[in-house]
Design a protein that fits this description.
It is a single chain. The protein is an alpha+beta fold. It has a single domain, classed as Ribosomal protein S16 (S16 Ribosomal Protein, Chain: A). It has two helices and four strands. The chain starts with a strand and ends in a 10-residue tail after the last helix.
Length: 83
């Protein structure tokens, strides 16, 4: 499953988007870090490794509801042109 893991100080949350087995704890050992989300900036900062998210979803990983909403809201970075 691809979901958020909470980090940061008390009342100052910062989230990592991680690939993790569904039945593990929220901040348990993850398989891979595929992005970050900081809701405290204005606007909220979202950074994804889209190629890795696509890879894991092709292998059967499911997105949590919140990660799915963040992916839809985050603009897709244009592909770099090879010169």
């Amino acid at each position: 499953m691809i979901r958020l893991a909470r980090f940061g100080a008390r009342k100052k949350p910062f989230y990592r988007v991680v690939v993790i087995e569904k039945d593990r704890a929220r901040n348990g050992r993850s398989i891979e870090l595929v992005g970050t989300y900081n809701p405290r900036t204005n606007p909220a900062t979202v950074d994804f490794k889209r190629d890795r998210i696509d890879y894991w979803t092709s292998k059967g990983a499911q997105l949590s509801e919140r990660v799915e909403k963040l992916l839809k809201a985050a603009p897709v970075a244009p592909a770099e042109a090879t010169a």
